Amino acid sequence: MYSVFRNLAIIMISAKFFGLVARKCKAPQVVGEIIAGLLIGPCLLNLVHTSDTIEIFAEIGVVLLMFTTGLGTNLKELLRAGPIATLVACVGVAVPLGGGTLLYSLFYGFSAVGSPEFYKALFIGTIMTATSVSITVATLQELGHLKSFLGTTIVSAAVIDDVIGIVVLTCVLGASSGTGTGLGKVLLNTVLFFVAAIIIGVVCHRAMKWLDNRNPHTQRITIVSMAFCFAMAYIAEQYFGIADITGAYIAGIVLCSIQDAPYVERRVDISNYTLFAPVFFASIGLKTDISGLTAEILLFSVCFVVIALVTKIIGCGLAAKLCRFSWGDSLKVGVGMMTRGEVALIVAQKGLEVGVVDPVYFTAVILLIVVSSVLTPLVLKALFTKMPPQPHPSQA
């Protein structure tokens, strides 16, 4: 049991050190933290292995990251970005889904619709649909563009993307098993969750405003806010089958307009960026193990990564352009949506459980997560430096 303290010490020191190195190199700190996980994990030095405790710390980190993202959201900007984010998310799911299916078919042959091989190809596309916004959020926050209309659009689209991804996953798994898609149940649970979130949100918002007026800038505001965050994350996952990070993000949205929202955001950031967030970003590197790679799987994995990144950029970028973003900002939206993380891992794991995808392709998923996690912050920073965001026509 006590080995967890040793592992946490190694993770925190290495993540901080390489985060500072990344900053010195004018790269986002999260890049350094992910590289730290690669170095100390099974991929290289083999000092630390992922464990249940580290996974829990990492999950808390991503939940708190999404909570503070919601807290820092401009509600008016979010409402304005809603329709645009929905279109970006829909196209951003459809294009990778088709790209992944085509990739598998080109490698292993085209199969008849409804055959087991067809569903394997379709499932490879399903893995590509997942978007992880946590790394993009950390990067946008570091660059100072998280609360902008562009940043709000990316975060909102990623949350909607997550919901659409759950629907697609359910349909593919249901169709491949021959038990029915269960689409109606998924849609019903999604609608019920958002209805419940609105009801709970209205009640909790009023209660928090009352508490905030009576106890401004006190620890109890932060404690109650974090409790609400964890409760919403639990409710979303346990009762509605929606990702816990979606519940946490909505909890932040509910509280973003109270007077002490910036105060709570700062206090949560202190604990999260000291411990939980570095563990989350380092854990991405810890999960990487390239010992089982063969030449064929390596080639497929490289193509898998390239197609997954390109199709997200094209799909989300073109959708953003249709919504009257400039070409530069459309590219930023596409790049911001190309990160993959815990959702892609969950999707792949579900496929392994039911036998739709073979275990060897898990390597491709890990490689995609690592490459997109390292590449996205670097490209985003370069884009924002060379092409500052332009005002959207809706802001005129």
Automatic annotation (TrEMBL):
The GO molecular function terms of this record are:
antiporter activity
Q: Is Lipid biosynthesis tagged as a keyword?
A: no
Q: Membrane-crossing residues?
A: 6-23, 30-48, 54-72, 84-106, 118-137, 149-175, 187-208, 220-236, 298-319, 360-380
Q: Which InterPro entries match?
A: Cation/H_exchanger_TM, Na+/solute_symporter_sf
Q: What is the superkingdom listed in this entry's lineage?
A: Bacteria
One GO CC annotation: membrane
GO biological process entries: proton transmembrane transport; sodium ion transport
Tell me which residues make up the Cation/H+ exchanger transmembrane domain: 13-385
Subcellular location per UniProt equals:
Membrane
Q: Which UniProt keywords apply?
A: Antiport, Ion transport, Membrane, Sodium, Sodium transport, Transmembrane, Transmembrane helix, Transport
Which Gene3D superfamilies does the UniProt record give?
1.20.1530.20
User: Topology in the membrane?
Assistant: Multi-pass membrane protein
Which Pfam families would you find in this protein's record? Na_H_Exchanger (PF00999)
**Family per similarity comment:** Belongs to the monovalent cation:proton antiporter 2 (CPA2) transporter (TC 2.A.37) family.
Q: What is this protein called?
A: Sodium:proton antiporter
Q: According to the entry, what is the taxonomic lineage of the organism? A: Bacteria, Bacillati, Bacillota, Clostridia, Eubacteriales
